[in-house]
C-alpha cells in the first residue's frame, strides 16, 4: 500500500544524495539507470530500507540504495511525513507497513 501511495504521489518525494544533492523521484530513477549504464556488465542489487518513527507526528526515513557488487554503490534518502490532517498512530508492525 505504501508503494502504491509513493508511485501515485511520487512527485511529492524529494530525495537527497551526497553527490547530486536534492533530487525528485524521476531524477533518482534516472541516476540509477545512468549508474547501471556506466558498467552494464557488472551485477547490481537494489535495496530499499525504512525505519519506523515513535514520535507523535510519524515520519519514516526511507533509503534507496543501488550496489554495484564488489565496487560500492550510491544511495538516496527521503523522509515520508504525515501532515496534521493525517495524524495517525501505528500500534503494530502491520499498520506501519500498510
| Tally of structural domains | 1
Distance from N terminus to C terminus (CA atoms, Å) equals 5 Å
Radius of gyration: 15 Å
Please report which band the strand proportion falls in: under 5%, 5-15%, 15-25%, 25-35%, 35-45% or over 45%. Answer: 35-45%
Shape: elongated
Mean pLDDT: 78
Helix fraction?
A: 25-40%
Strand arrangement in the largest pleated sheet = 3-4-5
Number of helices: 3
Q: Would you count the extended β strands for me?
A: 5
The stretches of 5 or more residues where confidence is low (pLDDT under 50) are 1-8
Structural class: alpha+beta
Largest sheet: 3 strands, antiparallel
Output the helix-strand order: HEEHEEEH
Q: Could you walk me through the main structural features you see in this protein, from its secondary elements to its overall organization?
A:
- The model is unreliable at 1-8 (pLDDT under 50).
- A hairpin with an 8-residue loop joins strand 3 and strand 4.
- The protein has one domain.
- The longest helix is centred in the first third of the chain and has 14 residues, at 25-38.
- The chain has three helices and five strands; from the N terminus they run αββαβββα.
- The strands form two sheets. It has a three-stranded antiparallel β-sheet, covered by helices on one side.
- It is elongated, with a radius of gyration of 15 Å.
- With 98 residues, it is α+β, with helices and mostly antiparallel strands.
Amino acid at each position: 500500500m505504501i508503494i502504491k501511495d509513493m508511485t501515485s504521489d511520487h512527485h511529492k518525494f524529494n530525495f537527497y544524495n551526497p553527490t547530486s544533492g536534492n533530487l525528485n523521484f524521476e531524477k533518482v530513477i534516472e541516476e540509477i539507470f545512468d549508474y547501471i549504464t556506466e558498467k552494464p556488465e557488472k551485477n547490481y542489487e537494489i535495496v530499499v530500507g525504512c525505519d519506523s518513527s515513535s514520535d507523535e507526528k510519524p515520519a519514516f526515513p526511507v533509503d534507496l540504495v543501488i550496489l554495484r557488487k564488489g565496487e560500492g554503490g550510491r544511495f538516496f534518502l527521503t523522509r515520508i511525513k504525515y501532515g496534521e490532517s493525517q495524524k495517525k498512530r501505528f500500534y503494530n508492525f502491520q499498520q506501519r507497513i500498510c
